[in-house]
Amino acid sequence: MDDVAKAAGVSKAAVSKVIRDAYGVSPAMRERVEATIRELGYRPRIAARAMRGSSFSIGLEIPNFNSEFFTQVMQGAAARLAGTSYQLMIAPGLGELSGTPVLENLADRQVDGIIAISPEVSPEWLEELAQDVPIVLIGRHDRSKNYDTITNDDDAGTRLAMNHLLSLGHRRIAHLTLRMQSERRDAEPPHTIRRDTYESVAGDAGLEGLVAYCAADAGAAYEAAKELIEADPTITAIFAGNDSLAIDALRAVVDLGLTFEDVSVVGYDDIRMAGHPLISLTTVSQFGELMGQAAIDLLMERIRTGRTTPRHRELQPELRVRSSTQRAKARLGNVESGADAAF
Amino acid sequence: MDDVAKAAGVSKAAVSKVIRDAYGVSPAMRERVEATIRELGYRPRIAARAMRGSSFSIGLEIPNFNSEFFTQVMQGAAARLAGTSYQLMIAPGLGELSGTPVLENLADRQVDGIIAISPEVSPEWLEELAQDVPIVLIGRHDRSKNYDTITNDDDAGTRLAMNHLLSLGHRRIAHLTLRMQSERRDAEPPHTIRRDTYESVAGDAGLEGLVAYCAADAGAAYEAAKELIEADPTITAIFAGNDSLAIDALRAVVDLGLTFEDVSVVGYDDIRMAGHPLISLTTVSQFGELMGQAAIDLLMERIRTGRTTPRHRELQPELRVRSSTQRAKARLGNVESGADAAF
DNA sequence: TTGAAAGCGATACCAG
DNA sequence: CTGGTATCGCTTTCAA
């Protein structure tokens, strides 16, 4: 920058102003400085800028790489950032770590804002962090006064899925969901809401709630679904907490030699593969890309306007009926005998 | 940091040394400083550290979010970085931008190293950038003297796929691949090598090369595959440049009412969905996660030891035979008549 | 409108 | 082994 200033015969301050196109530079000077910058191929160091101003980086915490829903959010956010001078810094919440160290890690890097996908941290802690850096929480239904949230109406989405199954005549509907590390009453992660609504809808319909929990790692859902189906031959449908779990459940159904008339499956998210004709998963779309975009928008608004009043956006989910859900048919005693019935 | 130094009754220099656990601190001092750090909840600012030392961030350029192969690489890299103080900074090469601005963007952030997945930039330019920051190139078979490369033996992989199809009796094998923006003879992106090898294997077998190009965006491959199959009813197999294209091709086959006995499909990558029983795609595994891990390892070695001699690792691909490839059977005149033959 | 100079929060050299 | 101090490259008052 010193070089540019000297070459253009102006001060560093002037160059700085041109770069940030700040107030108070004459067109003549702007032109000259810009020409020199091009000529010298000068590029400002973001680390230095970050010390005084902004780092032009946005942190994005994602729980893991197992669900394509997270990829959708990433994609939406990245697309919204394309063409700006901001960069995404992805922080996967790896291993057994709770979300806290991951978010701290981002904060240490002085990111200008943080998007977090329902991290397992306490609202109080987040509230505090949000006083230092703008935060948008995706998924969790907290009603914070310091950070924004973007949610999907999980209650409505679950009802869409459950009513669809009920209307197809299913009476023994199991729910396959993720085991949460913490069960706090004040933080409301989407999977908890879906489970609670599932139980409530089942109860209202006079059905027994059948909840199976599994870990998030690949393969766990397959095993859980298999066990579920084998252990209770009266089950005719599985409502899975997300598409990743649902697709694993499909695998279990097929591997057991059953069809979707024996065991129907509904997912949640509407990831790309759900629409593939060979998968054709009935699911609830929650528009992941849109959520990513909206998160960037909220963050940018806070960054640019300095807004501090929280905003809470809730998107309405939509049911996508495909062929993984079929009219219910008694399956009792069918488990081992239907090996050729899959197609 | 000043606060810590004062509270502990030592100098800033001492605190700095403790943080970096540099040479020359007595156990007593280390203990005292660490206690104070904990007590005050002090966290060093990475931006400030980046100005003199390292930013503890690794840049990862990925072409787009359309292929799960890129996710595999991300996951491998992220897993390798877990537990260290390094963070991944993901830079998607969005839109029509060539890779250059994306890599510059990362360099501007003083990342300690860059992993790039076959970006469309010239070797000369990369060579220059590599003198400033350690770079590992994934996929492209350049033989650089400044940056490392991790490749998969695309030639061997293609032969595995093609020989498999030939051994099943296929004689009219099309190749569906991505249209590259630039066709440089010196930079060798994987898709170009696969195509060249495809043509060479086809030629050696006395077959005609049938190459169809498509864009990378979702849906383009589906249309291209559909057109290919409809336009030439003698085609009995498609070798796709990657699994994403292959899965779109499967969609086309199914939508046209055909089976894999009419048109077999082989992919490349072995993404997770390829192994799902409902997809069951025959493909070539190139171990994306391993590549991500290995890239981090090479980068870290350069960062820690200051190595400057380039290293080029090549992984051996493996064929995964599943049910999307079947023994060849004449399809001529079948196109519109097989609607019920899919299952 | 322009520029000089004072930081920002760490690192690193070098003297004690 | 310890600490004073210059320094990194930019932003930001504040005078001129």
Short structural summary:
2 copies of one chain form a homodimer. The first copy, chain A, has 343 residues and is α/β, with parallel strands linked by helices.
Key phrases:
alpha/beta, 434 Repressor (Amino-terminal Domain), disordered C terminus, homodimer, Rossmann fold, six-stranded parallel β-sheet, 343 residues, 12 strands, 12 helices, DNA-binding
Write the CATH homologous superfamily of the domain at 154-286 in chain A.
Response regulator
* CATH third-tier fold name of the domain at 154-286 in chain A: Rossmann fold
In round numbers, the mean pLDDT of chain A is 92
Beta-strand portion of chain A reads 15-25%
CATH class of the domain at 154-286 in chain A: Alpha Beta
Broad shape of chain A = elongated
Assembly state: homodimer
Largest interface: A-B, 46 and 46 residues
- The number of helical elements of chain A comes to 12
Poorly predicted sequence stretches spanning 5 or more consecutive residues of chain A: 333-343
